[in-house]
Design brief:
The complex is a heterodimer of chains A (about 550) and B (about 350). Chain A is mostly helical and about 550 residues long. Chain A is about 80% helix and about 0% strand. Chain A is globular. In chain B, β17 (about 290-300) and β18 (about 305-310) form a beta hairpin.
């Protein structure tokens, strides 16, 4: 090969190497968990657990996931349809504002709602005890529905927007009324997209720790954290993890399958976009109100309540270092995840088998709940330590510095393994706008490889990559279970101190850190929401 | 625009390109582009014509052979000149306009220096798109996008202009209008151009020279009319339109066909040949005891297509100028116009 030819191959090769790294980072913890679970010694903890708490965990998990999916599905589908297919006051604004509740961690919403609705709370008092206390599996499911519905909403909105009017019109000419035509054409055509959104909601609810622990609905995640932090058994934690991963993988598989079906259903949709229904004045106001209610319940009310509580309390002393840790962890993870996502997307451009396999393996990480990722990281680090220790000691005569404790790197490893996948999809979508012909056009017009990246690629993908990174930033800011398991001693984040105060019934002190998470997350979330809403409306060919 | 950059022709010798696990996309293609002329590259899909175009642009590496412009080697053993250093202008099938840049910035992309925007604006105005300078690609119609793409390719005064099926995304009326406009623009610029197409009519309408491609090789080149009337092979003949292929045996200096004998001065007696007959070659005269019967009559606008069959069940299609009184069931005699008949070795 000529020197020029080798130079030509360098960029994709480097990208492929990084894609493989991303796959390793994302998939290694799951494999480590599986390894430990299979090869570890059999203790009686798990047998004991199976007789006692495991059925409760399973029932709660199923209940919470079902309520979350039902609620989020209803809210997301209705709002998605309203925004996509009708015209009403404030529609353009709601189109992206409705995504913002994603900035609120479910456990933060839970703190506010339990405080409002419990005996002695303002809502309880105002309704003379008629308003039920938000608690238990249904309360947790409701909280998830309120903050996770945007996953369904986003996919529903884009599907209903892209749907061709032809099928609906054909149904009308065949004698179906407006509602029947919707139920028999538009809704079934949107079903794969809605199912994909629901799968995301279910995976997130199963991965949650803070909400279900605070509202008293112990799910599998709780069992997992207890097995590690209470019983201290890595093997038992790994075995519980496997159950959780199995469930998550089933849901994940469903999501992937439905997503590819969603794509095929939308394939012929672009040509004749349906005109929006013009609602009457009353109908329009009703539609605006329908958008306002979930926004109020999921975002405005919780933040207002926590804001009010925070005003009446001295800030906790550890708030500043915790904020700093949260910000730096989230920022570093976001940059690294965006880098891995972008590299994987570039590698995928080469259409090689290894790139595709890497991207799929990295995608698996998204199905792995944070607690499981944390257990996996522990397994990997302690395994590595066990390998290095004897050799290190025989050479240096000293004990090898402990890998596990004191390393924020372990945390970032776990975050990346869970969230890097979240950056791959958006990066891929952003880079899909850069067709090979655009490269060819730039090169034949005299731009070098580097200039092509700078003048053509970057302007086209910058917003997408930024939004992918910001999404990871928000997720890491909200993350609780992995942080709890992996954090070094005395190393606090906002999520940790909020959870610790709230668990100690010191909600006043929990209020400010709880409030800070969504407040910090809101700005990046606005960027993401606007990007996701603009990218759809203007780019005809994407 | 100066003429200096059009003086040198492009020559391609034995160009080879293989993709992994696939048959060769280019299997030793030869082609010469004469300065200031428009050449159409015609071939079925998968014949390697787009690959050849991309190899000339430098977007595809050759595994063998050579491409040179005048004395400058663009591609050859151990050499691959980067696309940005070849000064080719390329119009892509989907136009590949930069979606983040407006029309003016698209045209100015390949220009450097303080005059870039002025030159770009002049190009846009020449394309009658001055009023769309601030419009983004998605705000332009298909035809306007094509004109911006051509203006962008021509703006840096390239040595060669390459067009990859530049009209494929357009409807028929627009296609014809843009075809003429594109040819005018290329001629005004004095450009040396190579246009890939799979449409024979389009190729013959635009080109000064025609190059036919099949299975990674250029199988025939020449002036459009000449290639159409004198195809070198059955494949070449079929690429340019409907043709009847009759296998025949040569006896007494002529090939015997059901349509009558065809003189074969270039072949020896006793050989088997293919006689290639364009539908226009078959003249029909009504005759009560004619050897053929009209079995089908179809109007095709400018002409009538008749299907005729003889007693042995051999049938042929003819094109006859309108009007004609012949109807299905009429008996006819046939006569061949040898200007539309070619004989090639079997």
């Amino acid at each position: 090969m000529t020197p020029a030819a080798r130079q030509g191959g360098r960029l994709p090769d480097r990208a492929t190497a990084l894609a493989i790294l991303a796959a390793l980072v994302c998939a290694a913890p799951v494999f480590a968990v599986a390894w430990i679970a299979v090869t570890g010694e059999t203790g009686d903890y798990l047998a004991h657990l199976a007789r006692t708490r495991l059925p409760v965990y399973l029932v709660n998990s199923a209940l919470v996931a079902a309520i979350a999916a039902g609620g989020a599905g209803l809210i997301g589908t209705v709002l998605g349809w309203l925004v996509a297919r009708t015209e009403f006051p404030g529609r353009a604004l709601f189109s992206w504002v409705l995504i913002l509740p994603l900035a609120v961690p479910a456990y933060v919403a839970a703190y506010a709602w339990l405080d409002l609705s419990q005996a002695g709370g303002p809502l309880h008092a105002a309704t003379a005890g008629l308003f039920p206390t938000v608690r238990g599996a249904w309360g947790a499911g409701l909280m998830f529905a309120l903050v996770l519905y945007p996953y369904v909403y986003l996919l529903a909105r884009d599907t209903f927007t892209g749907q061709s009017a032809d099928a609906y019109n054909a149904a009308r000419t065949l004698g179906a009324g407006p509602f029947s035509a919707f139920a028999r054409t538009s809704l079934p055509m949107a079903r794969p997209a809605l199912a994909a959104g629901l799968a995301l909601v279910i995976m997130e609810s199963l991965a949650d720790y803070g909400t279900v622990s605070y509202l008293g609905a112990p799910t599998l995640s709780i069992g997992l954290v207890r097995a590690w932090s209470g019983a201290g058994s890595l093997v038992d934690a790994a075995r519980l993890s496997l159950i959780l991963v199995a469930v998550a993988l089933i849901v994940f598989g469903l999501e992937r399958a439905q997503r590819s079906r969603a794509r095929s259903h939308a394939a012929s949709g672009r040509h004749r976009p349906a005109p929006r229904f013009h609602l009457s004045r009353t109908q329009g106001l009703a539609a605006a109100l329908a958008c306002l209610i979930p926004l109020a319940l999921g975002l405005i009310v919780p933040l207002a309540r926590l804001g009010w509580l925070a005003l009446n309390e001295q800030p906790a002393p550890n708030l500043l270092p915790a904020s700093w840790h949260s910000l730096t962890l989230a920022a570093i993870s976001a940059v690294l995840a965006a880098g891995l996502g972008l590299s994987t997307a570039y590698a995928l451009r080469g259409r090689t088998f290894i790139a595709t396999a890497s991207a799929r393996a990295a995608g698996l990480g998204y199905a792995v709940p944070g607690a499981v990722a944390a257990v996996g990281v522990i397994a990997i680090l302690s395994g590595t330590q066990a390998l290095i220790d004897p050799a290190w000691q025989s050479v240096t005569g000293e004990v090898f510095p402990v890998l596990l404790t004191g390393a924020a790197a372990a945390l970032i490893f776990a975050y990346l393994s869970r969230f890097a996948a979240a950056a791959i999809g958006p990066s891929e979508a952003a880079l899909a706008r850069v067709t090979p012909a655009l490269d060819g056009a730039a090169r034949t017009l005299g731009a070098t490889r580097g200039e092509t990246v700078r003048r053509v690629h970057w302007p086209l993908i910058a917003a997408g990559i930024t939004s992918a990174g910001l999404l990871v930033f928000v997720e890491v800011l909200k993350e609780l279970p992995a942080t709890m398991i992996l954090r070094p001693f005395n190393y606090d984040t906002l999520a940790i101190i909020a959870h610790n105060y709230a668990s100690d019934e010191r909600l006043g002190e929990a209020a400010l850190p709880s409030l800070l998470i969504p407040l910090v997350a809101l700005l990046p979330m606005i960027f993401v929401a606007r990007y996701l809403s603009r990218a759809r409306s203007s780019s005809g060919q994407v | 625009m100066t003429d200096t950059h059009t003086r040198r022709g492009l020559s391609i010798r034995g160009a080879q390109r293989r993709y992994v696990k696939e048959t060769a996309a280019l299997a030793g293609a030869d082609l010469d582009l004469e300065p200031g002329r428009i050449t159409a590259l015609l071939g079925p899909s998968g014949s390697g014509k787009s690959t050849l175009l991309r190899a000339i642009a430098g977007l595809e590496r050759l595994d063998g052979g050579e491409i040179r412009l005048g004395d400058t080697v663009w591609a050859g053993p151990g050499r691959h000149l980067a696309p940005e250093r070849r000064r080719v202008g390329m119009v892509f099938q989907d136009y590949a306009l930069f979606p983040h840049l407006d029309a003016l910035a698209n045209v100015a992309f390949g220009l450097k220096g303080p005059d870039a925007r002025t030159i770009a604006m002049a190009q846009l105005e020449a394309a009658e798109l001055g009023h769309k300078a601030k419009a983004f690609p998605h705000e332009l119609s298909g035809g306007e996008q094509q004109r911006v793409a051509l203006a962008r390719a021509l703006a840096p005064a390239p040595a060669i202009v390459l067009l990859d099926e530049p009209f494929s995304g357009l409807d028929r009326r627009l296609r014809q209008e843009l075809r003429e406009r594109t040819v005018d623009t290329l001629r005004r610029a004095g450009a040396t151009a190579l246009m890939v197409t799979h449409d024979a009519d389009e190729a013959m309408a635009v080109a000064d020279a025609l190059a036919l491609m099949d299975q990674g090789r250029v199988i025939q080149t020449g002036a459009p009319e000449h290639v159409w009337t004198h195809p070198h092979s059955v494949t070449a003949a079929r690429l340019l339109g409907d043709i009847e292929v009759i296998e025949a045996f040569i006896k007494a200096g002529a090939a015997g066909t059901p349509l009558g004998p065809v003189a074969t001065p270039d072949f020896k007696n006793g050989c088997t040949v293919y006689v290639l007959v364009r539908p226009q070659a078959i003249r029909l005269t009504p005759s009560a005891d004619g050897a053929f019967t009209v079995t089908r009559r179809r109007s095709a606008g400018t002409h009538l297509a008749f299907t005729i069959a003889n007693a042995e069940g051999q049938s042929f299609t003819t094109h006859t100028p309108v009007p004609s009184t012949l109807a299905v069931g009429d008996r006819v005699d046939v006569e061949l116009d040898e200007a539309f008949v070619t004989v090639v070795g079997a």
